[in-house]
Amino acid sequence: MQITNRGLVKAFITQHNSNYRKKMKLIFWIVCLLGTFLYGGSCLKVQYNGDQVLQIIPQTAKHAEYLQELANNWPLDLWRPNIPEGIQAGREVHIHIPSSHVNEMKNVLLQYDIPYSVLIEDVQQSIDMNMVHNKNMKAVSLNTYDYTQYHPMHEIYDWMEQIKENHNDLVTKLYLGETYEKRPIYYFRVGWPSEKKKKIMFIDCGFHAREWVSVAFCQWFVKELVSSHKSDAILAKVLKEVDFYIVPVFNIDGYIYTWTTERLWRKNRAPFNNGTCYGVDLNRNFDAQWCTIGASKNCSSNTFCGPSAASEPETKALAGLIERIKSDILFYLTIHSYGKMILLPYGYKDEVSKDHDLMMKVATKANEQMKVKNNNEYAAGASASVIGYYDSGSSGDWATDIGIKFSYTFELRDNGTHGFQLPQDQIKPTCEEVTTAILSMVEYVHDNYLENSGVALTAVWINMFISVICLYYTINL
Ligand code: 0X9
Ligand code: ZN
Ligand code: ZN
């Protein structure tokens, strides 16, 4: 990884005398700035030319230990697991390696006899293939909004406003709070107005900036809610008793940064140590065994937990809202990528939550529906065991700890072939299968914890009554 063009400028101008050099430098920057306005920030963007992503499977504990050491000492970007401690014998490891270290890395792997394969041949190329984006869209129009593309934040802001205006009977746009860089975070409440207090299904997207398909998913899901609320049998019955709360983009500063500057950025953009490093991992910043395991106290780490629990304005805003309405929340869902997983609590310990068996049953049903839909399945189970590393301070564990019954962390497609740069032609199938999965979960929760819960209770009483009568007759006859 290097900032583009710096080297190029240097190489170009060293051959000339200093007067000429100044002139060339000026011309370069003019061209560059022009380019920036016309094509969108090309000279300020971090480039990943020649960077590779390797898939490595350590065979022994020694291998794993050695890889951990490398991960700690070289400028490597761990994609899976995302902390060195998570590297274990027999478990797939995905590492993004800067071009400067690719050869050295491969030599070392050969030398230690650690098998590897190349997942992504050239990270920059894989990013560029994904950036086909219709740029001359002036204003967003709902009729032509393309849900099968990734959208920059300004378009998503426009989109949110339009959704609100076009569907004000069903949708309310609400203010959640402000990001570190003072941008507004909004969420939608989707559901029919009701006299009764409604239960809440809470979904958020875009915790991690580079996980673009997550952000695409929330937009897709909102579209589904507003366009299929009559035709979809589940939605038609559910929206009367349930409100969906949806945060389309949580880590807005980070998301924008992935569009303007560094495609593979993960955290928010808060500066630390006098601006020598940036960003808290928002999924390590919640008050759930905060920073005790699987998180880093070093601000340059991708899993930096922040100076304290809920230190970040984004975290405070989300946790604040959820705390206020938690007694009505039946279901908390946070959408990430990648890995094709449905993760249940906990991430900070090996134990499972008290509702684990029930939650597994619901996840299994969701998987059955996904299989019918796309012949696809996501690995479901307790977080640490499925994903293979511990984490603390995650929103999923926090939601469980404050008493929300169903709390799931989704990791969308894929399994690592494209990683965070999931091609746009996979947005549709991904969103469709996950929508199917979530609606199946929502239906279960609705049927068993809402309208029927009264019926279920009556059934128990009738049962008891009959039993007593039967007992009476058995004894007396
Ligand atoms: O490590 C994370 O924060 C999540 N994975 S990601 O690759 N999207 O960064 C997984 C968090 C799951 N943890 C719990 N449910 N506790
Ligand atoms: Zn655009
Ligand atoms: Zn994530």
Description of the structure:
It is a single chain. This protein has 477 residues and is an alpha/beta fold. It has helices spanning 6-13, 18-40, 61-73, 99-111, 123-128, 153-166, 212-227, 233-238, 252-260, 313-325, 356-374, 383-387, 395-401, 427-449, 451-476; strands at 2-3, 46-47, 52-56, 77-80, 93-97, 116-120, 171-178, 184-190, 199-205, 242-247, 271-272, 277-278, 329-337, 341-344, 379-382, 406-412. The protein is globular. Helix content is 42%, strand content 17%. It has an eight-stranded mixed β-sheet with strand order 7-8-10-9-13-16-14-15, sandwiched between helices. A four-stranded antiparallel β-sheet has the order 4-5-3-6. α7 (212-227) packs across α14 and α11 packs across α14. It has two domains: 5-126, Metallocarboxypeptidase-like (Alpha-Beta Plaits, 2-Layer Sandwich), CATH 3.30.70.340; 153-439, Aminopeptidase (3-Layer(aba) Sandwich). Residues 2-15 have low confidence and may be disordered. β7 and β8 (184-190) form a beta hairpin. The protein starts with a strand and ends with a helix. Bound molecules: N~2~-sulfamoyl-L-arginine (0X9) and zinc ion (ZN) (2 copies). Residues 82, 208, 211, 283, 336, 343, 346-347, 383, 387, 391, 394, 396-397, 409, 411 line the site of N~2~-sulfamoyl-L-arginine (0X9).
